[in-house]
Structure formats: C-alpha cells, structure tokens
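Researcher: We're teaching a course module on how sequence relates to structure. For the next exercise, students receive a sequence and then see the predicted structure as tokens, so they can try to spot secondary structure elements on their own. Here is the exercise chain.
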Amino acid sequence: MVRHIVTWCFKEEVEEAKKPELKAAMAEHLEALAGKVPGLVSARFVADLLPSSTHDMVLLTEHNTPEDLKAYATHPEHVKVADTYVRPFVCNRTAIDFEE
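Model: And here is the predicted structure for the students to work with:
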C-alpha cells in the first residue's frame, strides 16, 4: 500500500469567512475521486486540525502501487478537481509519499 499525504495553507488573500465553504468543497470533490481514478483506494480530507498544526488542511490517500500514485497525479479527474477547488486557494504545499 502506498500512502500519499498532502498539506496546504490558504493563501493570505482568502477571506476567513470563505474558508469553511472552500474546505467543504475540497473535501467533497477530493474524496469523490476514490472510485473514479483507477488505483486510488481511498481519499480522506481533514479540515479540522489541532491548533499546533502548521498547515490548514491535509489530504490522505491510499494507492495500490507507486505507479498508481504516479497515474493519479496526472489523471484528468484529479487535475480538474485540483485546478478548480484546490490550487486557486492554497499555497505552501507539502507532500509525503511512502510504501507500507
């Protein structure tokens, strides 16, 4: 099993009042990719982080193989969701991938 962990911060210009709505849209659309993208076993978006966190949200995905993770990165459904609901609003992306 390959695990993919991504964290983001909101861009400074994102209004505080809009953040819950944006997080909800990110969660809905990113989690819906499971079942649409081959090799994506699960996707979980976490928006309610502890105050000790250095980022605003995290995405946890599971893939069968490293090749599946690579295919996920460029899959049209994933790119569409990322370009529409995530990238316009975030910065400071970090990613960690590992195999168990």
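Model: If you want an answer key for the exercise: Residues 2-99 form a domain with the Alpha-Beta Plaits fold (CATH 3.30.70.100). DSSP finds three helices and four strands in the chain.
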